[in-house]
Amino acid sequence: MTHTTQLTKYVGNFIDELAKGGMTDIVISPGSRSTPLSMMIAEHESIKHWVHMDERSAAFFALGMAKQQQKPVALVCTSGTAAANYYPAIVEAYYSRVPLVILTADRPHELRDVGAPQSIDQIHMFSRYVKWFQEMAMPEESDAMLRYVRSIGARALHQSLDGNAGPVHLNFPFREPLVPDFSVENVWGERNEGYHPVTSGKRMLETSQIEKIKDEIGSLERGLLVCGPQEDKELAEAITSLAKHLQLPLLADPLSQVRAGEHEKDHVIECYDAMLKSEEVREGFNPDFIIRFGAMPVSKPYKLLIENHPDIVQYVVEDHEGHREPTNNHTRMIYAEGTTFCKQWLHEVGTWMFDKSWLDKWRDANRITKKCLIDDKGIGSLSEGHVITELTELLPEESSIYIGNSMPVRDLDTFFMTTPKHIRVLANRGANGIDGMVSSALGAAAYGEPVTLVLGDLSFYHDLNGLLMAKQYGLDIRIVVINNQGGGIFSFLPQANHPGHFEPLFGTPLQLDFQKAVEMYNGNFTRVDTWEQFRGAMTTSFSINDLHVIEVMTNRDENAQWHRDKWKQIEASLREV
């Protein structure tokens, strides 16, 4: 049996097992050592392959696609530093619980640590940021080895999804020659039903455990339900029903998927971040207990509320495992699927309401704050916060916002109000980096509803290479670039009080004409100066399926002062009541 035949059947069986397990998309970055994987993937009729030259952007593209589809996407690259460029996206996938299957090609063992070109140590190279790692055996064609390679493929898919989703890494050493032979008989091998594990059921509490929690908080009066970043589509209906059942305020993070949709929102408090910025106001909204679902909310004032009152009885509901509680206050972890937990309370705990005056207090404050935030919407010069309020009205049904980190996600927290529209909100909040945002949003745009990316000029610059995928595959996306010439969020931090160092170290103005870069990728570019122009550009972008970049020019100092004036207005209004 020739080396090429062994290589072809070994890789063919592996790729076919991925397809059998439901994988439909694999992102490939070109390279020589990865030839067997790349060519076999391109040949398989059930898998769509996407080619991206830049491994860093390719990994974020796969991450956005996996996040949108909520299923594993694979990555393929050659040996050496190509794989190292995956690292930022893998870190993000690990912390944001996104399933990726990383397939790195490698030199064979005899070419490692001997000075061979393009050879680095790839064993466990992603350390604890992958859920599972396997150094693959050298290709063989024996029945035992074909069963082995199929079992690894099945297990990789299962591991990426089991419990908290995340990335897994398989390292493939290949000897030359590397080109497979598609004329080999039965190139994809024989499928067997025994490889894919049976997925475990949803975790839930016993009735006695529910009763124990009820007893613990039964004597308390002021409670909060909190929903942080999460992507369970069913949780919004369940948690809002629970809030109504218990007559409790529900603080909904912008990434909770609770602020948008047709579910009832009478108990949803979306303006809590702006409400709680004032320390004096925060003291008037100190709860006795909190039940939180999802990750820690974006809001810093909410975090300060928790940190300043470590005596708050706090429960954090995690679907599987983990400890996402950065205040390190005493916390009771509940390991149960969130939607199931809410439904258990609805069915097993009878009619039971907390102090309604507490709920009314939050509702009144939320109404007052909301009025302050939107009283000048669409009036005067462009403001970064009202980009979000305008977008909420302009976005069509069944669309997505992919929000950038730093200042955009904070403006989303403040200005994204409840809406009956079905708008999904996506973000890279695992590690909160500004890198890879263009690629992530394009990955999300590759399937499903229309995607609108909102990000700052520095984040846009970080991932200009990502625009290549829009050009190559004709992807439909609109990118709103908030250009305040640098790092706008630093204007709100103590660094701004040191003008001698602020601009070169933190402000970092780029002074770049993005129009030239966008046109290089055959995109449409519009720079807007008024709200009328902004609305017109957005409307046009939804009528023509293409790459649209809409640049909103703002001033960093004016933006910081505008936000501070809003916060002062809100504080004064809440003090009056």
Automatic annotation (TrEMBL):
<comment type="function">
    <text>Catalyzes the thiamine diphosphate-dependent decarboxylation of 2-oxoglutarate and the subsequent addition of the resulting succinic semialdehyde-thiamine pyrophosphate anion to isochorismate to yield 2-succinyl-5-enolpyruvyl-6-hydroxy-3-cyclohexene-1-carboxylate (SEPHCHC).</text>
</comment>
<dbReference type="InterPro" id="IPR011766">
    <property type="entry name" value="TPP_enzyme_TPP-bd"/>
</dbReference>
<dbReference type="InterPro" id="IPR004433">
    <property type="entry name" value="MenaQ_synth_MenD"/>
</dbReference>
<dbReference type="Pfam" id="PF02775">
    <property type="entry name" value="TPP_enzyme_C"/>
</dbReference>
<dbReference type="InterPro" id="IPR029061">
    <property type="entry name" value="THDP-binding"/>
</dbReference>
<keyword id="KW-0479">Metal-binding</keyword>
<comment type="pathway">
    <text>Quinol/quinone metabolism; menaquinone biosynthesis.</text>
</comment>
<feature type="domain" description="Thiamine pyrophosphate enzyme N-terminal TPP-binding">
    <location>
        <begin position="14"/>
        <end position="125"/>
    </location>
</feature>
<dbReference type="InterPro" id="IPR029035">
    <property type="entry name" value="DHS-like_NAD/FAD-binding_dom"/>
</dbReference>
<dbReference type="GO" id="GO:0009234">
    <property type="term" value="P:menaquinone biosynthetic process"/>
</dbReference>
<keyword id="KW-0474">Menaquinone biosynthesis</keyword>
<comment type="similarity">
    <text>Belongs to the TPP enzyme family. MenD subfamily.</text>
</comment>
<keyword id="KW-0464">Manganese</keyword>
<protein>
    <recommendedName>
        <fullName>2-succinyl-5-enolpyruvyl-6-hydroxy-3-cyclohexene-1-carboxylate synthase</fullName>
        <ecNumber>2.2.1.9</ecNumber>
    </recommendedName>
</protein>
<feature type="domain" description="Menaquinone biosynthesis protein MenD middle">
    <location>
        <begin position="221"/>
        <end position="403"/>
    </location>
</feature>
<keyword id="KW-0808">Transferase</keyword>
<keyword id="KW-0460">Magnesium</keyword>
<dbReference type="InterPro" id="IPR012001">
    <property type="entry name" value="Thiamin_PyroP_enz_TPP-bd_dom"/>
</dbReference>
<dbReference type="GO" id="GO:0030145">
    <property type="term" value="F:manganese ion binding"/>
</dbReference>
<dbReference type="GO" id="GO:0070204">
    <property type="term" value="F:2-succinyl-5-enolpyruvyl-6-hydroxy-3-cyclohexene-1-carboxylic-acid synthase activity"/>
</dbReference>
<dbReference type="GO" id="GO:0030976">
    <property type="term" value="F:thiamine pyrophosphate binding"/>
</dbReference>
<dbReference type="Pfam" id="PF16582">
    <property type="entry name" value="TPP_enzyme_M_2"/>
</dbReference>
<feature type="domain" description="Thiamine pyrophosphate enzyme TPP-binding">
    <location>
        <begin position="437"/>
        <end position="552"/>
    </location>
</feature>
<dbReference type="Pfam" id="PF02776">
    <property type="entry name" value="TPP_enzyme_N"/>
</dbReference>
<dbReference type="InterPro" id="IPR032264">
    <property type="entry name" value="MenD_middle"/>
</dbReference>
<comment type="subunit">
    <text>Homodimer.</text>
</comment>
<keyword id="KW-0786">Thiamine pyrophosphate</keyword>
<comment type="pathway">
    <text>Quinol/quinone metabolism; 1,4-dihydroxy-2-naphthoate biosynthesis; 1,4-dihydroxy-2-naphthoate from chorismate: step 2/7.</text>
</comment>
<dbReference type="GO" id="GO:0000287">
    <property type="term" value="F:magnesium ion binding"/>
</dbReference>
